[in-house]
Specification:
The chain is an alpha/beta fold and 587 residues long. The chain has helices at residues 2-13, 15-42, 68-74, 135-147, 185-203, 240-253, 256-260, 280-298, 301-314, 325-336, 360-369, 374-385, 413-432, 434-443, 445-459, 473-483, 552-562, 572-576; strands spanning 100-110, 232-237, 264-267, 344-345, 409-410, 466-471, 498-506, 512-518, 521-522, 536-539, 546-551. The protein has a domain at 97-135 and 163-210 and 227-253 and 268-343 and 409-586: Phosphoglycerate mutase-like (Rossmann fold), CATH 3.40.50. It is built from 18 helices and 11 strands. The strands form 2 sheets. Strands 1, 2, 3, 6, 7, 8, 9, 10 and 11 form a 9-stranded mixed beta sheet that branches. Strands 4-5 form a two-stranded antiparallel ribbon. The chain is globular, with a radius of gyration of 30 Å. This is 2-phosphoxylose phosphatase 1.
């Protein structure tokens, strides 16, 4: 009895301790059970290869939902380079500044959405405008059909004016197709919307609008004799996609009479260099920059594997292997930009790998027969003229991987993330390297001279009010690099991108200024000779938004005195003739 009382006394004194022990054991068992359950879920076998389909077909290798809606949200960042219509907006674009008169505008654009540069498996991909719902496309097409003198029943009209573009079609050949290197109907839509924005911003301040003539019952097919063809000057490279993009944009910018009066001039260079073109030093800089990118690629085995898998799935013809990640990215954009499902492939017999050295003669024939991509075609043209030694046709040690078609499976969202994130990272690093800016200075020298010459015409009372340069991604890469304009996309230039130089005169005095707007964003302060106190900040609108105006003499001084200083030279010939470029570090 005494022992029982003693045990009860001890139990009463340590009751709290026993409660803590029991609670700890219960929590431990609960956590162990949760981890065991989670481990069972994660260890479920997929039953596929590393780059094959997932077990359920709906869950990607990253565990995310691969339904169309979730995939669209996941790839929204990558689709920025596709320039969806919602991305084409009026933002900081000027036109009317209080106390200032707009003297003229020089606009550089990249063409709109195009087909891939390589043959891809594009069955089922719609590169057109869904359901014919774009009113601007319908209006443009109706106008061309009604005003053209070509044979009835044809599916696209032709440019009938004498010159280098005689016989060029004004519309893509098919409404839904993704022709190799050609503008698509989606690209036409993009430029029509850009032109509509430019119409809202510039048409009235520049006096580009004409009063309709009530005595003319229908639209004439010949230019009006009273129109001044010098008001709007158009330059484009001799590619259908840039030519069609220019005319589509100008259709919504100008009245019909002025559009019909247009004369389109040819630029023989994608850099719009106008005589200041040949520059071996620029080729060497670019070659070294590409070699740095190749080293980064070789360090990433995961990217090489994904590049091989996606390229082998999407690309139709890869006899020399897959060596360029941006070629695969371009093919992949055919899928991403048109909201198509990620492709799959079935098992095929392995073919005997061929030597990795490329057959330049065959590829040159392909380039001549089609309007290839801006970068690829430019390099091919340079290879023909022996001006640029950095053509991809020259064996320069690029990593090459033979596409493996023995596996079957699908391209998954995780594969897209791996490739696109690497491409974005490499684009950012390249754009931040000194070689990128130096090469841009050399490549865009002729174009900047041309732009400045038209600025001087505008401020001297010349009739020219609007100058358009319809070019390629490399056109804008060179120009933005030379001016020091940096974007969050690195060296990537989205379809239908625009770079505007707005020229203003003060109402209070005779000083002339300009501002630079890239895709609707004021980037004047990014330019070295316009930053900080070198520019004038003025009120842009009634809501108090500001605009930066840079004196025109700043760009003139930069062109004539400081342009070649980073290259330790005083003129274009001296800068291009340097044997060795300035030394610099890797990425």
């Amino acid at each position: 009895m005494r022992l029982l009382k003693e045990l009860m006394r001890v139990a009463t004194q340590h009751r709290a301790f026993y409660c803590y022990v029991l609670l700890s054991v219960w929590i431990f068992l609960l956590i162990a059970g949760m981890y065991r359950y989670m481990g069972n879920v994660e260890s479920t076998p997929s039953g596929g290869s590393v780059f094959g389909p997932s077990s359920s077909g709906t869950v990607s290798s990253l565990g995310g939902d691969s339904s169309p809606s979730s995939t669209a949200q996941r790839f929204a960042k990558y689709r920025e380079r596709c320039a969806p219509l919602a991305q084409l907006q009026r933002l900081d674009d000027g036109g009317i500044l209080e106390g200032w008169k707009l003297q003229g505008v020089l606009l550089v654009i990249r063409h709109g959405d195009r087909g891939p540069i390589s043959h891809v498996r594009s069955a089922g991909i719609n590169c057109g405008v869904s359901g014919g719902s774009d009113n601007l496309v319908n209006r443009y097409r109706s106008f061309l059909y009604n005003s053209s003198s070509s044979a009835s029943g044809s599916n696209h009209m032709y440019w009938n004016k004498v010159g280098p573009f005689h016989g060029f079609p004004l519309l893509p050949a098919t409404e839904r197709g993704c022709p190799l290197g050609q503008l698509t109907y989606k690209g036409i839509s993009q430029l029509l919307h850009v032109g509509d924005i430019m119409h809202q911003v510039y048409a009235h301040p520049l006096g580009l609008l004409l009063k309709p003539n009530p005595n003319r019952a229908s639209v004439e097919t010949t230019p009006h004799t009273l129109l001044n063809s010098d008001e709007v000057v158009v330059f484009t490279t001799r590619y259908r996609r840039t030519f069609q993009s220019a005319l589509a944009m100008l259709f919504t910018l100008l009245p019909a009479d002025k559009w019909l009066a247009l004369n389109v001039r040819e630029s023989h260079s994608m850099a719009f260099c106008f005589g200041e073109c040949s520059c071996p030093q620029s080729a060497l800089l670019r070659k070294r920059l590409e070699a740095m990118g190749d080293k980064q690629l070789l360090k990433r085995g995961d990217v090489l594997d994904v590049m091989q898998w996606i390229g082998g799935t999407i690309l139709q013809h890869t006899p020399n292997g897959i060596s360029n990640p941006f070629e695969v990215v371009d093919a992949l954009l055919t899928v991403l930009c048109h909201d198509a499902t990620l492709p799959c492939r079935r098992k095929k017999a392995l073919s005997t790998p061929k030597p990795l050295r490329k057959n330049s003669n065959q590829e040159l024939v392909d380039v001549i027969n089609i309007d290839q991509d801006e970068t690829a075609a430019n390099l091919m043209q340079e290879a023909q003229t022996q001006v640029e030694p950095d053509s991809p046709e020259v064996e320069n040690g690029n990593p090459s991987v033979q596409a493996d078609e023995a596996q079957e499976g699908c391209v998954e969202p995780s594969h897209v993330d791996t490739l696109m994130s690497f491409a974005d990272e490499l684009s950012q690093r390249s754009a931040g390297h000194s070689y990128y800016k130096l090469s841009g200075l050399l490549r865009s020298y002729g174009m900047i001279r041309h732009i400045v010459s038209y600025m001087l015409k505008m401020i001297s009372g010349d009739r020219t009010k609007f100058v358009l340069y319809s070019g390629h991604d490399c056109t804008m890469q060179y120009l933005t690099a030379a001016l020091g304009i940096i974007t969050n996309q690195g060296q990537t230039i989205a379809y239908a991108s625009r770079l505007a130089f707005e020229v203003y005169r003060s109402d209070a005095h005779t000083d002339y200024y300009f501002r630079v707007v890239y895709n609707g964003k004021d980037v004047t302060q990014q330019i070295d000779f316009c930053e900080g106190g070198k520019s004038l900040r003025v009120t842009r609108d009634s809501r108090g938004n500001k605009a930066d105006l840079c004196p025109i003499e700043n760009i003139i001084r930069f062109l004539h005195e400081d342009y070649f200083s980073p290259l330790n030279a005083t003129n274009f010939k001296e800068a291009c003739g340097s044997v060795n470029p300035p030394k610099t570090g890797e990425f």
